UniProtKB/TrEMBL annotation:
Keywords (A to Z) from UniProt: RNA-binding
Signal sequence range: none
Organism classification: Eukaryota, Metazoa, Ecdysozoa, Arthropoda, Crustacea
Pfam families recorded: RRM_1
CC annotations in GO: spliceosomal complex
Protein name: RNA-binding protein 25
Length: 312
C-alpha cells in the first residue's frame, strides 16, 4: 500500500522544522540529571517569616488509602439458585422453625350452607384456610345450588384448618358442617402424627402448656395462622353482610302456580263486573296459565270465550 506524496514546496517558503529529516537518536550513553531534594539547610526563608511557617508550607505525602478487608468466600455470591449470604454486619433474617406443609390433596365435605350465603362468599371463606384446588357445589335439577358441596385442599394442613375453624361456625341462621370421610381421616391422622414428632423435636423445654385433646399437634405458628384466618373470615362476612340481610328466597313451584291462579281469577272477576275487554288481552290470560291443570285451563278458556261472545 503506497502513501500519498508530500505536498510540493512553494519557492521562497522555508521548510517547516521536523519535516524532511528523519528522527534519529543521539549516539552515545544518555545520562539523566539528578536534582537533590530540598533540606532544611537549603531552605531560604524570607525576612520576617519564622522557619516553622516555612516548613509547614512544604507539600507532604497524601494519606494512604486504608487497606481493603480480606476477601472471603462466605460473602461472595454463589452460582446457581443458592441464596447470597449477608455481610457488612447486617443480621440475616430469622426464619420460623416450622416445616413447610406438604402432602397429598385432601377433600372434605362442607354442608348445611345457608341459602343466604352467596357462593362467592363461601369460596372466599374456604380460601382463608389454605390452598383450594377445587370447590364443587352440588346443584339441583333446576340448577339451584344445594346446601352442601365438596372442597379439595392442596395439603392436609389446609384441610385440618378448615375442620378446626369452620365446623359448627354459624353463618346467618345455620352452622356449617365440615367433615372428612374414613379414608381421608387416615391421611389426616398420619399427618398429625408427623406434626407431633416434629413438634416434640423442636420443643426443648420439658414443661409445656396443657393443650386440648386432638390439638396436641399444633405449634405456635399454626395457632397464629388460625387467628389470622379467623380475622379474614370476619372481614369477608362483614363485606357480604348486605347480601345476607337483603336476601329474598325464590318462590317454590306451588307458590308460583298459586300466584298465577290468583291473577287469572282476578281477571275473571274483572270481566264479570263489566270491565273494558280491551284492557284484558286474551294472550296474557293464556300465558299466565302455563302451570294450571289442563281441565281447569279449558274451563277458564271456555268461560272467557262465552263472556266475549255475550259482550259483542
Amino acid at each position: 500500500m503506497a502513501f500519498p506524496p508530500r505536498p510540493p514546496l512553494m519557492p521562497g517558503v522555508p521548510m517547516a522544522p521536523m519535516i524532511g529529516a528523519p528522527f534519529t537518536l543521539p549516539r552515545g550513553p544518555i545520562t539523566l540529571e539528578r536534582h537533590p531534594l530540598p533540606t532544611l539547610a537549603n531552605i531560604v526563608t524570607p525576612v520576617g517569616i519564622p522557619i516553622t511557617q516555612a516548613i509547614s508550607k512544604i507539600p507532604t505525602r497524601l494519606p494512604s488509602r486504608p487497606p481493603l478487608p480480606p476477601h472471603s468466600t462466605n460473602n461472595s455470591i454463589s452460582k446457581g439458585p443458592q441464596t447470597t449470604s449477608v455481610s457488612h454486619g447486617i443480621k440475616p433474617p430469622s426464619y420460623s422453625k416450622r416445616i413447610e406443609s406438604s402432602g397429598p390433596a385432601v377433600t372434605v365435605f362442607v354442608g348445611n350452607i345457608t341459602e343466604r350465603a352467596p357462593d362467592v362468599m363461601v369460596r372466599y371463606i374456604l380460601n382463608t384456610c389454605g390452598t383450594v384446588l377445587s370447590w364443587k357445589r352440588v346443584q339441583g335439577a333446576s340448577g339451584k345450588l344445594q346446601a352442601f358441596g365438596f372442597c379439595e385442599f392442596g395439603n392436609p394442613d389446609a384441610a385440618l384448618r378448615a375442620i378446626r375453624l369452620l365446623h359448627d361456625y354459624e353463618i346467618a341462621d345455620k352452622k356449617l358442617v365440615v367433615k372428612a370421610d374414613a379414608k381421608t381421616k387416615e391421611v389426616l391422622d398420619e399427618y398429625k402424627e408427623k406434626r407431633k414428632k416434629s413438634k416434640q423435636g423442636l420443643d426443648s423445654s420439658p414443661l409445656q402448656d396443657e393443650v386440648e385433646e386432638g390439638e396436641d399437634y399444633l405449634d405456635e405458628d399454626m395457632r397464629v395462622e388460625d387467628a389470622t384466618a379467623m380475622e379474614c373470615i370476619a372481614n369477608i362476612l362483614s363485606e357480604h353482610r348486605k347480601d345476607i340481610v337483603n336476601y329474598v328466597p325464590p318462590q317454590s313451584r306451588h307458590e308460583r302456580v298459586k300466584e298465577r291462579m290468583s291473577k287469572v281469577q282476578e281477571k275473571l272477576v274483572a270481566l264479570s263486573s263489566g270491565a273494558d275487554i280491551a284492557n284484558i288481552p286474551t294472550t296474557t290470560n293464556l300465558d299466565d296459565m302455563d302451570d294450571v291443570e289442563e281441565g281447569k285451563k279449558e274451563l277458564i278458556t271456555r268461560e272467557i270465550t262465552q263472556f266475549r261472545e255475550q259482550m259483542k
